[in-house]
TrEMBL record:
PROSITE patterns: SHSP (PS01031). SUPFAM superfamilies: HSP20-like chaperones. Signal peptide: none annotated. PANTHER family: HEAT-SHOCK PROTEIN 20 FAMILY MEMBER (PTHR11527). Residues 24-136 form the SHSP domain. Belongs to the small heat shock protein (HSP20) family. It comes from the Bacteria. InterPro entries: A-crystallin/Hsp20_dom (IPR002068), HSP20-like_chaperone (IPR008978), Small_HSP (IPR031107). This is HSP20 family protein. Transmembrane segments: none annotated.
Length: 144
C-alpha cells in the first residue's frame, strides 16, 4: 500500500479534473533540459522518463528545433486497479531556437535511460581559426 503525505496533491488533481487546468500549487508538465557546449559541439539533454523512443519526434525547420514526445498510459486490463496516478500523460513539446553557428544538417540524437541527448556540431564557419598575417612591404622612401 502507498501512503502520501502531500495534502494539496489531491486538491490539485481534483481542481484539474473540474477546471481542466492545473491548480495553483501543481507544476505544469514540462520537458526539463540541460544545454552546454562541449568542444566542437552543442549538447542538449531532455528528461523524458517513461517515454517510448518511437513516441519521440524531432524536427528542424530553418533554425527552430522542435522536440515532441508522448507518454502513453500503461496497459490496462480487468485485473489492473490503479492505486496512484501522478505522472502526466499526453504530448509534450519544446522548441529551441538555434543560432546560425550550429550545423543543423548533422544533428545526432540518442535516447538512453529516459534521457534524449542531442549533439549538434558547431558549424565550420563559426569555429575559431587562425588568420595569417602578411608582412607589409618595406616603406619606400620618396625622394624629393
Amino acid at each position: 500500500m502507498l501512503m502520501r503525505t502531500d495534502p494539496f496533491r489531491d486538491f490539485d488533481r481534483f481542481a484539474q479534473q473540474v477546471f481542466g487546468s492545473t491548480g495553483t500549487w501543481s507544476k505544469p508538465a514540462v520537458m526539463p533540459m540541460d544545454a552546454y557546449r562541449a568542444g566542437d559541439e552543442f549538447v542538449v539533454c531532455f528528461d523524458l522518463p517513461g517515454v517510448d523512443p518511437s513516441a519521440i519526434e524531432l524536427d528542424v525547420e530553418r533554425n527552430v528545433l522542435t522536440v515532441k514526445a508522448e507518454r502513453r498510459p500503461l496497459p490496462s486490463g480487468d485485473d489492473v486497479q490503479m492505486q496512484v496516478s501522478e505522472r502526466p500523460l499526453g504530448v509534450f513539446s519544446r522548441q529551441l531556437f538555434l543560432g546560425d553557428t550550429l550545423d543543423t544538417e548533422h544533428i545526432d540524437a540518442a535516447y538512453d535511460a529516459g534521457v534524449l541527448t542531442l549533439r549538434i556540431p558547431i558549424a565550420e564557419k563559426a569555429k575559431p581559426r587562425r588568420i595569417a598575417i602578411s608582412q607589409a612591404e618595406e616603406r619606400k622612401e620618396i625622394k624629393a
